[in-house]
Amino acid sequence: MSETPREDEAPMAGTARERGMAKMEEVYGFSYDPATIPGGYVDVTVDHLFGDIWTRPGLDVRDRRMLTIGALAALGMPKLLEIQFGAALEREELTEHQVRELVVHLAHYVGWPLSTGANAAAEKVIAARTNAAANKADPK
């Protein structure tokens, strides 16, 4: 067995908390300081999910986001899909056309009832962005 770490096991700089807060900010445009929230749930979310999992090499943020979107669609979680779609559009990881195509593709794997919620979440986010852009262009 080799003592040299594999590429996907390379050590990451900083503490899990530092990596997690930075990655959460990158992924969503916001982060939470677990020290300000009671209980251990946010600690695990920031330190492990974002500090250890989202920072692993091998998949970029866009890849991880599309996997997350698929899982959330399969679980019927339209509110969380709104967050993912909004962040993907804001970070220009996906275009509006790609978001819509992703929903059509997922419909054939998660089923029509669950994809209806995913479609509603996508269209809600796209409409909000369109309205915000229109208001910015023509502030009355």
Can you describe what's shown?
The chain has 140 residues and is mainly α. It folds into two domains: 13-53, no CATH class; 61-137, AhpD-like, CATH 1.20.1290. It has six helices and no strands. It has helices at residues 16-28, 41-53, 61-75, 78-90, 96-110, 112-137. Residues 1-6 have low confidence and may be disordered.
Order of helices and strands: HHHHHH
Instruction: Please count the helical segments.
Output: 6
Helix content: 55-70%
Number of strands: 0
Index terms:
disordered N terminus; 140 residues; 2 domains; mainly alpha; AhpD-like
Question: What topology emerges from the helices and strands here?
Answer:
Blueprint: H1 16-28, H2 41-53, H3 61-75, H4 78-90, H5 96-110, H6 112-137
Helix pairs in contact: 1-2, 3-4, 3-5, 3-6, 4-6, 5-6
Summarize it:
With 140 residues, this protein is mostly helical. It has two domains: 13-53, no CATH class; 61-137, AhpD-like, CATH 1.20.1290. The protein is 68% helix and 0% strand.
